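User: quick one, fold this
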Amino acid sequence: MGSSVLFLLINILLSYIFLPMIFGLKDGFAGKSLGKLICGVEVIDIDTQKPIGFARAFKRNLVLMIPLMPIVVAFTLAKGRRFGDKWANTKVVLRKARNHPIFTGGLVCERCQYNLTGNTSGSCPECGRAISGQNLNKLTEESKDPVELV
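Assistant:
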């Protein structure tokens, strides 16, 4: 009798507490799970463009712990970010292209992929490379945007 109760307790702890916690926190290791590390992607915060931590990873994956929700999420992935990403304000990006304009919406250095949005020096502050003519034109156009005065 005592061993069956112990077995039941261990089963409940593993099934409903420990395994969901491990699954929920898996992306918290600098925005990478083992699978994301192998595939070269990471989860980043949309506002800071930095990898997420454990709290944000848990929030992002919490929706997947609802029964049948992973199936719903699988069918909605083609539309873009999944529910958990929207709720946690995160997105999954290619690690080596994290600073690319397609992910940041700004300009980047051709050599080191450093975000050049707002740069006025004419060179990349990260690697020192001169900003290309095309990027320099975009930067000057960006700075000439009219400011609306009320």
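User: anything notable?
Assistant: Residues 99-145 form one domain.
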